[in-house]
């Protein structure tokens, strides 16, 4: 019975992690094409990338707070259950950071193209 309770608690915590208060931010729909964009379009693209970066920072902070709260509330968790919760949080964090870095790399590629085209 206690094992069943622990499994139910872990499932509830995992569901809370998946559907908790932390909302994954949407990346910008499109980035400017450095070969054809104007300076204003590139600056607007830079702003979108910076906003996404800030939103990812807030999201990863939220994941940390949510995970810490879940671990603090659940004194009955086994070490394996705690490790599973931490692993899930790490995976979410890492995926968000990778998405942020990929977006920045794509923008920087377009920025290099823009700078090469507009070199004087």
What are the low-pLDDT stretches, counting only 5+ consecutive residues below 50?
1-19
- Overall number of strands: 0
Q: Can you tell me the overall shape?
A: elongated
* Main sheet attributes: strand count, strand direction, barrel closure: none
Structure classification = mainly alpha
Number of helices: 3
One letter per element, helices H and strands E, the order comes to HHH
Q: Give Rg in angstroms.
A: 20 Å
Overall pLDDT score = 86
Beta content comes to under 5%
Q: Please estimate the helix content.
A: over 70%
Distance between the termini: 75 Å
Could you characterize what this model shows?
There is one protein chain. The protein has a domain of 76 residues. 76% of the residues lie in helices and 0% in strands. It contains 3 helices and no strands. The termini are far apart.
């Amino acid at each position: 019975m206690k094992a069943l309770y622990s499994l139910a608690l872990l499932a509830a915590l995992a569901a809370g992690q998946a559907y908790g208060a932390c909302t994954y931010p949407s990346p910008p729909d499109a980035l400017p094409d450095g070969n054809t964009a104007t300076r204003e379009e590139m600056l607007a693209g830079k702003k979108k990338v910076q906003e996404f970066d800030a939103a990812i920072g807030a999201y990863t902070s939220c994941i940390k707070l949510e995970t810490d709260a879940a671990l603090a509330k659940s004194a009955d968790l086994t070490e394996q259950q705690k490790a599973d919760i931490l692993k899930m949080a790490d995976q979410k964090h890492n995926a968000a950071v990778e998405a942020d870095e990929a977006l920045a790399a794509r923008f920087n590629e377009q920025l290099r193209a823009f700078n090469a085209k507009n070199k004087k």
